[in-house]
Amino acid sequence: MDQALAMAARAVGVSEPNPRVGCVIVSADGNQVLGEGHTQPAGQAHAEVMALRDAAGKGNVVTGATAYVTLEPCSHHGRTGPCCDALAAAGIARVVAALPDPNPLVAGQGFARLRAAGVAVEVGSGAAESRELNIGFFSRMIRGIPWVRMKVAATLDGKTALDNGTSQWITSEAARADGHVWRARAGAVLTGIGTLLEDNPRLDVRLAPVGRQPDAVVVDSRLDTPTDANIFLPGRRLFIYAAVEDAKRQAALEARGAIVIHTPGPGGKVDLAAMLRDLAQREVNELHVEAGHKLNGSLIREGLVDEMLVYLAPKLVGQGRDMANFGPLADLGQAVNFEFVSSAMVGPDLRLIARIPGRDRF
Q1: Of 124, 94, 111, 181, which Cα lies nearest the Cα of 1?
Q2: Which residues face 94 on adjacent strands?
Q3: How many angstroms separate the first and last alpha carbons of the chain?
Q4: Residues 48, 72, 286, 307: which is the catalytic one?
Q5: Is the pLDDT of residue 78 over 70?
Q6: Cα–Cα distance measured from residue 276 to residue 150, given in angstroms and rounded to the nearest whole number
Q7: Least crowded by CB within 10 Å, which of 144, 265, 300, 302?
Q8: What is the mean pLDDT of the chain?
Q9: 51-60, long-range: CB within 8 Å, 24+ apart, which pairs?
């Protein structure tokens, strides 16, 4: 199962919106790996089929073998055929799966069809690791919204930019490259119109290997996105969420390939919760936020952030822009509490990952 989980990790940045799944087929005596594989890009083969192909390519017979797979084999006809049927047809005698698939189209039916075909099924090995690897997929299937990860690069005194907006570069090149690894993991990268107008970012993955570029998302209440902004890149989806309707501006943005969605909320702002629900409908599993202190503050204030990815540089700047602008709070009991999940040095900088307590238990 550890080997299957390692294969699943190779599907990060490749398989979206499908879950990251790995499969290892082992001989009946457990002494030989016959084939292995991971989920390919959407519309292509899943992990189980890749493992069967690998075994066939090596001339290995899988009759009577055991398949270790990090998620329940699918049982429905989606972009591809059911993997449970492929395993049974190949003569696999036993399937060891990490955990059931939360997709309502599967949800135990894969296991049921395997057992009906005479295949022994065991469930539970590697469950925590597989679920963590697919936390965005589970979030979308169970909560109906993506897993929201907010990335911040800040100084030791918590400033993300000087008062004049200068922020390049607070953290090191190593930290920036690591940040692109997390971008590559996401289904979409989100920013606000303020950051777009001030920094003109591309929000793509350039400093890390990636099988597909994540979608781009802009929160732009009044449709102020310039049609010549760097965020317009060929071959990827760009979603612009607006609160107002302006037919002329919308037509210009759509002519550049943007998808404009109206989710109006109070005060002429975008309804951020409605935006998340819409992104889930568009098959975004993990939403990676790289925005300014205003949008960050709004997302946190509305309880929409699940996880913080913070890079702290060992420097002080005194006055400057904060990570998130919300409050003021009347007392410390109103503070938004996180719990640290991990910490690591990335070059000279400290990377911290923190989550809302219990948020991942859905």
Answers
A1: 124
A2: 66, 120
A3: 24
A4: 48
A5: no
A6: 14
A7: 144
A8: 94
A9: 51/23, 51/24, 51/25, 52/25, 52/86, 52/87, 52/90, 54/25, 55/25, 58/34, 60/32, 60/34, 60/35
Judge whether 243 and 268 are in contact, CB under 8 Å. Answer: yes
**For the whole prediction, is pTM greater than 0.85?**
yes
What does the block give as tokens for 76? 């429905």
Cβ proximity of 251 and 227 under 8 Å: no
What number of other Cβ atoms are within 10 A of residue 341's Cβ?
14
Any idea which of 35-49, 124-138, 286-300, 324-338 has the lowest mean pLDDT? 324-338
48 as an active site residue: the answer is yes
* CA separation for the pair 315, 349 (Å, rounded): 10
Residue 193 and residue 218 in contact, taking contact as beta carbons nearer than 8 Å: yes
Torsion of CA 79, 83, 89, 95, to 10 degrees: 180
Six-digit token string for 86: 């492929």
The owner of tokens 């679920």 is: 131
pLDDT exceeds cutoff 80 at 309: yes
Two tokens, residue 350: 């400290």
